[in-house]
Amino acid sequence: MKRDSSHISNVPFGVISFSAGKDIVQVDPSVLHMIGFTDHPYSWYAGKKTTVLTPLTSIIDNITSQLTKNSFVRAVTDVITLADGTVKTIHADAYVVQEKSGASRTIKALFFEAEDQKMTESELIEEINSLKKLNSELEQFVRSVCHDIKGPLSTIEQFSLLLEKEAVSGNTKDLPFYTDRIKQIAKRVRSFVDSLKGYYYISKEKPSFVKIELSQVCQKVMESLQPLIKETGANIEVKSLDIIETDYSMISQLFYHLISNAITYREDGQRPEVKVSTQVSGDNLIITVADKGIGFEDKFASRIFEPLQRLHPRDRYDGHGLGLAICSKIVEIHHGKISTESQPGQGSRFIVSLPLSQSRTEQPGQPFFSI
Questions:
Q1: Domain Histidine kinase: where (predicted)?
Q2: Contacts (Cβ under 8 Å, ≥6 apart) of 369
Q3: Which pTM does this prediction carry?
Q4: Are residues 233 and 270 in contact, defined by beta-carbon separation less than 8 angstroms?
Q5: Would you state the pLDDT for residue 255?
Q6: Residue 87 CB contacts under 8 Å (≥ 6 apart), including other chains
Q7: Residue 31: pLDDT band by 50, 70, 90 thresholds?
Q8: By mean pLDDT, which of 39-48, 77-86, 362-371 is the weakest?
Q9: How far apart are CA 340 and CA 300, in angstroms?
Q10: Phi/psi at 26 (nearest 5 deg)?
Q11: Do 336 and 304 reside in the same domain of the chain?
């Protein structure tokens, strides 16, 4: 009768016995499966330094070396590459068998693989390239943060020197101006740091998805934006909004940043006109925020969602270049998509597509980087 050997490949561990000189005594067939050798699944392999175990040479050498001083070793680890390109992390615990007097020492090692770390060579290369990209983005992010903080701090230093000089000379006429400027700049730096914290915690926060009526969310956001709406005379048109499964805090931030941007980026003296609407499309909800502001060229359509990216001078439009990056991260956490359509002088449309139900989606992966 033909014997079923499929269960052997599912055994997550196996034993190898070998001498202090690394001559193989016995090999558990599950170890052979572990390293991709399946020709003789039922035989315990015995022989002199067999090439079958070549992938384990390094870890066996390590075990033998450590057992010259100890009788037991734990968690000896090595990363091996099989003939098919699969990369595995192998762990081993080993001990010296106490033989009769005069007999050569025998070592028994229990090998097991870390299943969650197994990947093909191509996947490993892809992961390495992803980490390189991540590192490049992080370097750019750090440079941008340093630049955005260094400028205001230099200005504070200059005003402080002027303040000191005026105080020494006894001229107090300009002191209120200098102190007021220092306070304004310090407030801007504090706001920038708060925005950085907001971006960081969005990346770390675990969402709590519940069904929410977006009209209520939008109403609360409009209340928080009342000072800006009154100052600019903005006209915000909100059409009937649908119900969606989402995180309340995150979806509120999404609406806040999209609407506040639509109000802010306008020509001098122009009354902001903003339209907010939703539309169900299959299993997704399409959220649209449109304005008639200054707009921008299409070539910047993807760049504006990157952190600390600004298309307009800070002295004309206040902001830190993080609002849309936060929106992009929120959409990513919701397994959605965000895009924009714009033309200079013709306004912009931001389109967000989110699943109506998060229960149909997998948990989100790691954000592009954490600071």
A1: 144-358
A2: 134, 137, 138, 141, 203
A3: 0.54
A4: no
A5: 92
A6: 79, 80, 81, 118, 119, 120, 121, 123, 124
A7: confident
A8: 362-371
A9: 10
A10: -145, 150
A11: yes
344 and 225 in one domain?
yes
Q: Report how far residue 286's alpha carbon sits from residue 279's, in angstroms, rounded to the nearest whole number.
A: 5
Res 196 pLDDT > 60: yes
Q: Which tokens sit at 77?
A: 């680890």
Question: Quick one: pLDDT at residue 98?
Answer: 66
Q: Which pLDDT does position 85 carry in this prediction? A: 80
The token pair at 12 is 């997550």
Residue 168: C-alpha distances to residues 158, 160, 162, 172, 174 (Å)? 16, 12, 10, 9, 13
Residue 60 shares a structural domain with residue 192: no
Pair (241, 350) in one structural domain = yes
138, burial (CB in 10 Å: exposed 0-12, middle 13-18, buried 19+): middle
End-of-domain residue from the set 117, 151, 183: 117
Measured at the alpha carbon of residue 251, what is the angle toward residues 244 and 187, in degrees to the nearest 5?
Answer: 170
Closest CA to 31 of 49, 47, 48, 54: 54
Bridge partners of 72, per DSSP, are 95
Average pLDDT, the chain: 77
Which pLDDT score is estimated for 337? 92
Instruction: Kindly tell me if the per-residue pLDDT of 366 is higher than 50.
Output: no
Q: State how far the Cα of 36 lies from the Cα of 56, in Å rounded to an integer.
A: 12
Residue 311 CB contacts under 8 Å (≥ 6 apart), including other chains: 296, 300, 303, 304
Of the chain, the end-to-end C-alpha distance in Å amounts to: 61
pLDDT at residue 10 tops 60? no
